[in-house]
Automatic annotation (TrEMBL):
InterPro entries: BCAA_transport, Leu-bd, Peripla_BP_I. This is Amino acid/amide ABC transporter substrate-binding protein, HAAT family. Residues 44-383 form the Leucine-binding protein domain. CDD domains: PBP1_ABC_ligand_binding-like. Transmembrane segments: none annotated. Gene3D superfamilies: 3.40.50.2300. Coiled coil: none annotated.
Length: 425
């Protein structure tokens, strides 16, 4: 059964008056306000709606770093070139506060008051599912550099695109690789948070196990504020070979801390998103080593290069220089979303601010675009269950290894390292 989140948000947002203020948390340079294309100014203005506070603030800050690094780099390189002239990029932020309704309100405010040319989207899938109908109603181009729930693409939103492949593909393929490690697992315990992204992740993990003929001892979805010691206690009593968990960084950390507290030690934990972020590693205080995850990008992976950043390694260096920490695939995909806009605007050939007609043409260009980036080739599906999702970037299973808990590719690929499995202390 489809959950009630989107229907509730749709009814609310399509009847809600625009121009809201106060709790929306709009930050950044406000720019010149006005009606339609008479905003004024000589910059392309992008609105960003993401979670800068609340439970999902860690991931929201990752998207912010990605969008900010793109803006900084494109402006240092002269801006976006249109018909012989160059235009800088301006970002104005709205804090979704990890809440779908707040995110939808912020998106409405962004469009009606800030008069943005286009929008860079939220970190989380539940906020994206609330923001996408607002983009649809206002016919505003919208690219998410993060959201992975398959529900977004099933809705067939014309104005929403995503640079990260759906978690249905990422989690399933990585899980199948981990389940094939020697000795082959015979049982798995699947836990997760009961939200759009996390539920889809856990479901894909369960499907992978069933496809491999591995016994699923439990499929256990919980509220985000659950007591994970209770979940771990139940899992420990089942004694699985592997434990798979679908969630965000906070629930990963809480689950693994509870496992350590209760001496629960299956042959390995697979926690899909964020295991190679500093938030995950710092949150576990040095106990992150051996955790399996999944990614679609690493600094060490050779990709096509192309616009703005010459290679994955070049991008990683720029990120470390700017933020003093290594980027993960969400940050990389967020920067890639900006690069996609960059090429699309160059192809559009219109100076800012964009008219309604020019925004519609921009959406048409995005549907057919092919961009070579440090993150990989980006194109968007034109039909089917993954409509407007970039499914071309291949997922890879990773494991944290070594003194620095570096994420290395494991599994069957030619470039894979040997997995520490069963995971040793």
């Amino acid at each position: 059964m489809r959950d009630n989140l989107k229907n509730t948000v749709n009814r609310r947002q399509f009847t809600k008056a625009a121009g809201l203020t106060g709790a929306l948390g709009v930050t950044g340079v406000a720019g010149c306000l006005g009606g339609g294309s008479d905003r004024g100014g000589d910059k392309f203005k992008f609105g960003v709606v993401t979670s800068l506070s609340g439970d999902l603030r860690f991931g929201g800050e990752v998207t912010r770093r990605g969008y900010d690094l793109w803006k900084k780099t494109i402006n240092e390189n002269g801006g976006i070139e249109v018909d012989g002239s160059s235009y800088e990029v301006e970002l104005t932020y709205a804090d979704a506060k990890s809440d779908p309704s707040t995110g939808a309100d912020a998106a409405s405010q962004m469009i009606t008051s800030e008069k943005v040319d286009a929008v860079l989207g939220p970190y989380s899938s539940n906020v994206t599912l609330a923001v996408a109908p607002i983009m649809e109603k206002n016919q505003t181009p919208h690219i998410s550099g993060s959201a992975e729930s398959p529900r977004i693409w099933e809705e067939q939103y014309k104005h929403t695109f995503g640079t990260v492949p759906t978690v249905t593909l990422i989690a399933r393929q990585a899980a199948e690789e981990i389940l094939s490690l020697d000795p082959t697992a015979e049982s798995v315990y699947v836990s997760g948070v009961n939200g759009p992204f996390s539920k889809a992740t856990a479901s894909a993990m369960r499907d992978a196990a069933e496809n491999k003929g591995v016994e699923v001892l439990a499929y256990d979805l919980n509220p985000s504020d659950t007591d994970w010691t209770s979940v771990v206690s139940s899992a420990k009593s089942e004694d699985p070979d592997l434990h798979f968990h679908g969630g965000h960084i906070g629930s990963h950390v809480s689950l693994l801390k509870a496992a350590d507290q209760l001496n629960y030690d299956p042959n390995g934990f697979f926690c899909h998103y964020g295991v190679n972020t500093s938030d995950f590693k710092d949150g576990l205080g040095g106990d992150a080593s051996g955790t399996f995850g999944a990614t679609v990008w690493l600094p060490s992976i050779e990709r096509t290069g192309g616009k703005l950043f010459g290679s994955a390694a070049d991008y990683a260096k720029a990120a470390r220089d700017e933020f003093d920490q290594s980027p993960d695939y969400t940050q990389a995909a967020s920067s890639a979303a900006g690069i996609v806009y960059q090429q699309a605007l160059e192809e559009l050939g219109a100076a800012p601010p964009l008219s309604d007609t020019e925004q519609s043409k921009l959406v048409s260009i995005l549907e057919d675009i092919e961009v070579q980036t440090f993150y990989g080739d980006v194109t968007f599906d034109k039909e089917g269950d993954f409509y407007h999702n970039n499914t071309t970037t291949s997922p890879l299973p990773v494991q944290l290894q070594g003194d620095d808990d570096e994420a290395v590719v494991v599994g069957s690929s030619a470039s894979a390292s040997e997995a520490n499995y069963p995971v040793s202390e």
